[in-house]
Write a sequence for this structure.
């Protein structure tokens, strides 16, 4: 370049091209960092907004209703299945408990049947002693106890009915699942059993006659015979209650698996 007849220094040529905009470009250091970050956020938000817009456009009210109904039906079905399973388990547990009650009643019945005849024989022997007392109604202590011991060579063998399975059934609440007719008969049997157990204690207490030389125990014998007669009546009624309870369990379909195995063998 020649100015005023002189050639300028060659270093001005790049400056000129820079002024003309040929070589000067924007440097990264000249960009505002905040503006750069805002621009990046805007670029990132744009695809998300576009995605939301496309999602909003894809939702169909009928599809939402179908999905809601499906969820409700799934919950209802799960609840029904769970209730059904609990019902099946409760019925199974109740049946198992009633089988144990039946086995207990059967054991009580067998034990009482073995003792009932023996107690009747004791009552007959003691009643015959009272009838032989004569017009003076005199019975010595030795005569009374000799007669009692002859009638009970192996002991009086009092009967106390077990009620363990029944107590467990009451405490666990399984009896709430038993039909009323069956439950009524079971309650009557165990109530009668408790009454007989209590009266047996009264009878045994009456056996404690204090011997005194020359004492007449006739009236003590009469009281004892009355107690024996009442106990025999209680035991006879209890055997009838046991039979009714077992019949009610049969009607309810509750059978002793031990009896089934014994009959099959």
């Amino acid at each position: 370049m020649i100015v005023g007849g002189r050639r300028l220094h060659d270093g001005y040529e790049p400056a000129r091209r820079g002024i003309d905009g040929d070589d000067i470009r924007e440097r990264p250091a000249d960009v505002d960092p905040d503006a750069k970050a805002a621009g990046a956020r805007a670029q990132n938000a744009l695809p998300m907004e576009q995605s939301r817009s496309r999602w909003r456009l894809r939702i169909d009210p009928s599809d939402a209703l179908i999905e809601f109904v499906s969820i409700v039906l799934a919950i209802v079905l799960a609840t029904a299945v769970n209730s059904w399973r609990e019902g099946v388990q409760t019925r199974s547990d109740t049946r198992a408990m009633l089988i144990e009650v039946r086995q207990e009643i059967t054991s009580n019945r067998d034990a009482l049947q073995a003792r009932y005849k023996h107690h009747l024989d004791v009552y007959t022997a003691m009643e015959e002693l009272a009838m032989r007392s004569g017009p003076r109604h005199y019975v010595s202590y030795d005569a009374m106890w000799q007669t009692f011991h002859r009638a009970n060579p192996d002991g009086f063998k009092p009967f106390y009915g077990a009620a363990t399975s029944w107590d467990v059934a009451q405490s666990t609440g399984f009896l709430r699942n038993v039909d009323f007719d069956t439950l009524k008969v079971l309650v009557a049997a165990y109530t009668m059993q408790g009454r007989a157990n209590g009266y047996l204690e009264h009878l045994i207490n009456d056996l404690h006659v204090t011997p005194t030389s020359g004492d007449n125990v006739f009236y003590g014998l009469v009281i004892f015979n009355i107690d024996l007669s009442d106990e025999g009546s209680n035991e006879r009624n209890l055997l009838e209650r046991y039979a009714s309870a077992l019949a009610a369990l049969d009607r309810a379909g509750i059978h002793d698996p031990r009896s089934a195995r014994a009959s099959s063998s």
About this structure: Residues 97-264 form one domain. Confidence is low (pLDDT under 50) at residues 21-27.
